[in-house]
Amino acid sequence: MLNQEKVQFIKEQRILGKSLRDIGKLLGVSHQAISNYCLRYGLSKARKIKKELPTYEERFQGRLEKYTERREDGCWIWKGTRVPSGYGRIYYIDSYEYVHRLSYIRNVGEIPKGHNLTQTCGNTACWNPEHLKIKC
Ligand SMILES: [Zn+2]
User: Fold this and answer.
1) Whether residue 131 has pLDDT greater than 90
2) Least CB-packed of 23, 47, 95, 111 within 10 Å?
3) Cα of 1 from ligand 1 centre, angstroms
């Protein structure tokens, strides 16, 4: 195998996530020899193909989970930023939103213009959509 081909081969194997030892076996040389090749030809930074990046929605869900305490009484208590009245706030897409309002919109539907929500459980930090109803 020509040097150029060998370098290409090693690079591809590294991208596929093969260890230096495995590549060494394929080429019939020691893992140290492969390591030297990687250093010499700048292949040492070759990494396994990264798992697909999480979507905005997945990251948002992660933030929701991180700052929420799911209590046995069914309340989903927001532990992140809160306003003095107790309502949770979260940055969503491009602005700060109330967590309970966002929860209602995302899980139930639109909130009629000019209407507020109320928590049937009485806890302003709760964002369980089943505990939210439109205040008349
Ligand atoms: Zn509740």
Assistant:
1) yes
2) 95
3) 67
Query: 107 alpha carbon to ligand 1 midpoint, in Å?
Result: 15
What pLDDT digit, counting tens, does each position of 38-92 carry? 888 777 554 544 556 788 898 999 999 999 999 999 999 999 999 999 999 999 9
**Judgement on whether residues 76 and 120 belong to the same structural domain of the protein:** yes
C-alpha of residue 90 to centroid of ligand 1, in Å: 18
User: Based on the structure, what is the number of domains in the chain?
Assistant: 2
Separation of CA 57 and ligand 1 centre (Å): 23
Question: Rounded to the nearest whole angstrom, what is the distance from the C-alpha of residue 79 to the centroid of ligand 1?
Answer: 13
* Mean pLDDT, rounded, for 18-47: 82
Please count the other Cβ atoms lying within 10 Å of the Cβ belonging to residue 53. Answer: 8
Query: Cα of 116 to ligand 1 centre, how many Å?
Result: 16
Q: Which domain holds residue 116?
A: 56-135
* Average pLDDT score over the chain: 88
Its pTM stands at 0.62
Distance 58 CA to ligand 1 centre (A): 24
